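We emphasize that the prediction below concerns an isolated chain of 70 residues; any contacts that depend on oligomerization or on bound cofactors are therefore not represented. The input was used exactly as deposited, without trimming of termini.
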Amino acid sequence: MEKLYNFILDTLNKAIKLLLTFLCLGVIIQLLINDELLNWDPVGNIQDAGPSFIGVISLVVLYILFSKKN
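Result of the prediction step, given as a token string:
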């Protein structure tokens, strides 16, 4: 059971890191070209989300800080 739990946590950690990398890359590219990226508007989505996105970012940051201590 512990192996399964560790596998799930490891997979989730890798997925979160990959998705955050794509999000950051999308924001940077959109800022450089000043247009949507393949009909994807990460900056606009962040602006539309407003305070809820800030809450998600704070949860991700807290999770990263907590996981680095272990």
